[in-house]
Design brief:
Elements lengths: L5 H4 L4 H6 L4 H5 L19 E2 L2 E2 L23 H16 L7 E6 L8 H11 L4 E2 L1 H4 L6 H10 L1 E8 L1 H8 L3 H10 L4 E5 L4 H7 L1 H4 L4 E2 L5 H12 L2
Parallel strand pairs: 3-4, 3-5, 5-6, 6-7
Antiparallel strand pairs: 1-2
Length: 232
């Protein structure tokens, strides 16, 4: 019977194990495949954990129940969980007359930049948007018009930018809008050029809400998801 050479030569390497007269035959019986430490004998680009792919990107493989069959927009499982309660409220409010689809909450500094971009992308997809730049007339009470806009919109979206974080820290108009939006399950944060970690430092309550992020996908894709969310 062949004797194992491990006590003398060791089996620290594959070649050492293969050269052993006692263990080499067992090693070769596994065939030519060998796997590095901690690996698995398969790989899948779609494998994910918590909505994230193993490679670090988002695993967007899900279509929610409200997405049309012809739609090419894909979501992460986490996004579907986040948006489902909002969608349910959209459907409940579908019978209310003369509602805007979306109330866009944003920092004043973003009104001609990111907020305008998002507004234009949504309207290009047929979404009616309450936007202070066009809906607050000169000389009107801003707070009163905001109250009207909130009451007459199905969904509130909050464009979270560095400018908004600065406004929230100072408890400005945006903070009053958020207080009203947070009171209902009709709020979708959209994080742009900042992070949820930075948001939680300024507004833990808003930061506890999951939403969408332009770090994960372009603004146009975010707008496509909001458009599907409010489509009836």
């Amino acid at each position: 019977m062949a004797r194992c050479t491990a006590p003398v030569n060791g089996h620290r390497t594959a070649s050492g194990r293969a050269a052993c007269p006692a263990c080499g035959s067992r090693y070769s019986s596994y065939g030519s495949r060998s796997y590095p430490p901690y690996s698995t004998p398969y790989s899948s680009s779609g494998s994910s954990s918590g909505g994230r792919s193993i490679g670090g990107g988002s695993s967007r493989t899900v279509k929610p129940s409200w997405s049309r069959a012809s739609s090419s927009v894909l979501y992460t499982p986490a996004e579907v969980r986040t948006l489902t309660p909002v969608r349910e409220n959209v459907e409940k409010r579908s019978s209310l007359p003369e509602l805007r689809d979306v109330f866009l909450c944003h920092a004043w500094d973003d009104r001609k930049g990111a907020a305008k971009e998002l507004h234009d992308l949504l309207e290009a997809r047929g979404v009616s948007v309450w936007f202070s730049e066009k809906d607050v007339l000169l000389g009107s009470s801003l707070l009163r018009e905001i109250d009207k806009g909130l009451a007459k919109s199905r969904v509130g979206i909050v464009l979270v930018t560095p400018a908004l974080l600065s406004r929230l820290a100072g408890e400005g108009i945006a903070d009053k809008e958020l207080s009203a939006l947070l009171a209902r399950d009709l709020l979708v944060p959209i994080v742009h050029n900042t992070t949820y970690e930075e948001l939680r430092e300024v507004s833990p309550l808003l930061g506890s809400r999951s939403g969408l992020s332009t770090a994960e996908e372009p603004m146009a894709d975010v707008a496509a998801k909001i458009a599907e969310l409010v489509a009836l």
